[in-house]
Specification:
The chain has 211 residues and is mainly alpha-helical. The chain contains eleven helices and two strands, in the order H-E-E-H-H-H-H-H-H-H-H-H-H.
């Protein structure tokens, strides 16, 4: 989604150790620069990987600053937060997936999400988060939901539990061979945080036990 690109851009900017923002550019011949030496938000694994690639610092020109401010104003609040957590439903990918699943709460939609983890191909970060969320739906259909399972999905699970539970084997495979596999960007990113990695792996392992 467009807002997601702006959200990632915003988090990269705010995590620069020196973040210069043009202020009062409309009235002053020389822009007054406000310098903040503290990061605005905690760096996520994705941002650490970006720093390791030594991404060029985005110039703080008047035009770019004004465009950035306008873009951030249009981003939903939850997108600006850049949710990042080891819990299954406390991240951007899962939140997006839940919203889409509510629109199309079908067996095929659930299956199409899970098979991304069984194809043997590279699994991007957000796709990995979606696979975990889909696996949680299957676990709930088996009568073993997470304490954080979205209440809005409960009616869907109750209605289609008999169908959804048939995907248990696919869900287990998607997690073990996909999300926890060598071609998982989500695992790559979590691996940059030793403590976070342990919590995240523990969360996925707990989910597997419920499948």
């Amino acid at each position: 989604m467009l807002w997601r690109k702006f959200a990632l851009m915003g988090r990269e900017l705010m995590n620069q150790q020196l973040f210069d923002l043009d202020v009062f550019c409309m009235k002053r011949p020389k822009c007054l620069l406000v310098r903040d030496t503290q990061p605005k938000v905690a760096a996520s694994p994705r941002l650490l990987r970006a720093e390791q690639r030594q991404l060029p610092v985005i110039a703080s020109t008047r035009r770019e600053s004004l465009l950035f401010i306008a873009a951030v104003a249009a981003i939903p609040n939850y997108a600006r937060a850049g949710a990042w957590s080891h819990e299954s439903f406390a991240n951007d990918g899962a939140l997006d997936w839940v919203a889409e699943f509510q629109k199309t709460p079908t067996l095929e939609f659930l299956r199409s999400t899970l098979v991304q983890g069984t194809a043997g191909e590279y699994i991007e970060h957000f796709a990995g988060e979606c696979i975990i969320a889909a696996a949680e739906v299957v676990a709930a259909s088996l009568g073993r939901p997470s304490p954080q399972f979205p209440k809005e999905l409960a009616p869907v699970v109750l209605k289609s539990a008999a169908q959804f539970k048939s995907l248990a084997a696919i869900a287990r495979s998607a997690l073990t061979g996909g999300v926890l596999g060598a071609k998982s960007e989500l695992l790559e990113n979590w691996s940059l945080h030793a403590e976070g990695l342990a919590r995240w792996k523990g969360s996925v392992s707990e989910l597997l036990k419920r499948l």
